[in-house]
Amino acid sequence: MKILVVEDEERVAHFIQKGLKEEGHAVDVSYDGEDGEFLAEVNDYDLIILDLMLPKKNGIVVCRELRASGVATPVLMLTARDSVEDKVRGLDAGADDYLPKPFAFEELLARVRALLRRQSDSKSPVLKMADLELDPISRRVSRSGKAIRLTTKEYALLEYLMRNPDKVLSRTLIGEHVWDMNFDPESNVIDVYVSHLRAKIDKGFEPALLHTLRGQGYLLSDDSPPV
Description:
2 domains, 8 helices, Arc Repressor Mutant, subunit A, 4-stranded antiparallel sheet, 12 strands, Rossmann fold, 5-stranded parallel sheet, alpha/beta
């Protein structure tokens, strides 16, 4: 999943980013409200973690303006101020959940999972392509009923592909959504992960689902790719 963290304390922002990346998420970080709001409007995020007290524009204003502009991405608001009044203001501005600082990363992660699960439930409980299935809630993958074990990053790559079936996805798009916006397009890491993923979901099965379109990108489809 692709997550935006808007937090002006660099230590806290990097702590959250590191932990979420270890869980397989692509994480972008912004350090002020104006930049965070811009990134949230121009990118397709699955979740926004938004601090309340931010320079240039506070989290309440950012959240309210995002909702007014039609951005429906779930928002988890963070703040050192945990009065009932502050919580009500945040939720009324459009936040989906509220976490006071300081917090244990395990609690943050549980709230992130809950919001992402709610988002997945509103889309489709199980993603399918031919006989390949991915359950975003249990994070289980199978083909023809046979369980497939994936690494954290392989799972994130497959989920992104399965949420965009029959679409040619460029390496840049994959890099931004499965890694982050600082992904180096000259790196061959995507090719390596695609190769590993193909060996797990296609080897020994028919038809092949993961296709490489030279010069264009990658395609997950049960139809033959265009020549």
